[in-house]
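The instructor's notes for this session suggest beginning with a concrete chain rather than abstract definitions. Hand out the sequence below and ask the class to guess, before any prediction is shown, which regions might be ordered.
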Amino acid sequence: MSFSEFFYRYFIEPIKYNQGYNIVNTLVYAIILGIAVLLLYKMLKRMGIKVNEKFFVALMPYIILGPLMRSMTDIGLLPRTYLTVSPGGYFVIAGFAIASLFAVWRHCRDERLYPIYRDFGWVLVAGLLFIMVINWDKVSVRWVFFKYFIPSLLIAESFIWLLSKKFELVRNNRVLYYTHFYDATTTFVGIQFFGFWEQHVLARTLMDLFGTPAVMYLEKLVIITLVVYVLDRLMADEDPELINFIKLTVFILGFGPGTRNLLITLLR
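After discussion, reveal the predicted structure:
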């Protein structure tokens, strides 16, 4: 198999035919993500931008932008291309976020940077919402979704609340646990009650093995616990801002897909 055939089979076909992820592209995307996180962190350090609560709030509209664009593509309000579905769509949004941050930073290097950067992101979100509003006649809302989603979410998040009372590691990282159990709930409800399917290869394998999408909760619990254990215990002497940036990335990896799942299940 030539390189072009290999690339087409494992990277182009899954997007073209909506086949989901496979072990090859999953590993490659994970490596790319790891490299990107380190490069972005170094860029922020050089720009003098601290990874703190102000930065998180300013970044929030860009975090919302990704799942909003992807869900609008899935329900037919945006054209389906390599740049509007995963992973291309997330590269596009990341490009917007980085370019916007750099442009604002070039003209404003004090505390005003954060609200200006945030507001520009909300303008982009508003643009997508405008497209949705003017095409609302093409969209229907599956209100019954909440009948399954709300009880499932309450049970899942209550479980995390109970764990946080007993385990310090969970308590100190409860936002990450809450976020990823939100993601697990959107996946569980979409597959269990509405006939959707899982795109990620590890989750698909576990669902086939256990015979239920509820295994997503176990997967999330194990993975997030391993991640925060490494960050909080084994990397305790590392730069705190690097740890915060990695945790921010973990938050995005839960909130983004979870919100996308919620929107494509709710809207059709």
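Then share the key points. The chain has three domains: 1-48, 50-139, 142-268. Residues 240-266 form the longest helix (27 residues).
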